[in-house]
Design a protein that fits this description.
Elements lengths: L5 H22 L6 H14 L1 H4 L12 H29 L7 H26 L6 H16 L6 H18 L4 H23 L3
């Protein structure tokens, strides 16, 4: 009976580790960019007037609903665009396709809350219900992260729960939208970037 030598065993273990890594990448969404989290967080902090510190900035208060809506539309558009570019660059650097089956699954998980947010925002905008927009955005974004977390690193589940809690707080206290949006889309995205940089960035 032939018994593999130490070198053969080491090679076999290395091959198994490579196979496991490939399987994990195809089963769990992991193409995160720490820089994307930092950029999204910075844009949200700017849009919120530094979590409402600059209270007269249009994105910090909803007394002028149109300006408030436009500011945050710009913040979300910037966050989405830079995320697409940086995710594509990271996938390319790893020799992977950006639009993998697991990426499509993650996109579909976010699509429902995203579409609900768009249509509900239009309804609230048309009915002058600006005070509810901050809670709506935070809640639905949190729901999307919660859904994605079932096939991505589990820290997204806790991040989603934090967004949901902040969304509820924003609905309870509707007079401070800049604060809640800054803490949520600003602060939590910075935490996201730190976690990715520490644990997942390669």
């Amino acid at each position: 009976m032939l018994i593999p030598g130490p070198m053969a065993q080491s090679e076999a273990l290395r091959a198994l580790a490579d196979i496991r890594a490939v399987i994990d990448r195809t089963a769990r969404y992991s193409t995160f960019s720490a820089l994307s989290g930092f950029l999204a967080g910075g844009a949200a902090l700017a849009g919120s007037g530094g979590c409402g510190y600059f209270a007269q900035f249009p994105g910090a208060q909803d007394t002028d609903g149109k300006a408030y809506f436009l500011v945050w539309s710009g913040v979300f558009a910037f966050a989405a665009l830079q995320w697409l570019i940086l995710t594509w660059l990271k996938a390319r650097s790893r020799g992977e396709s950006m639009w993998t089956p697991i990426a499509r699954t993650a996109f579909n998980a976010m699509l429902g809350p995203g579409l609900a947010g768009i249509f509900a925002s239009i309804v609230l905008f048309a009915s002058n219900g600006y005070q509810y927009l901050a809670g709506l955005w935070l809640l639905l974004y949190g729901c999307g992260l919660w859904a994605v977390s079932f096939f991505a690193p589990v820290f997204l589940r806790w991040l989603g729960l934090a967004f949901i809690c902040l969304g509820c707080c924003a609905w309870v206290k509707t007079t401070d939208p800049g604060f809640w949006l800054g803490i949520g889309f600003g602060g939590l995205h910075l935490i996201f970037g730190i976690v990715v940089l520490a644990r997942y960035q390669k």
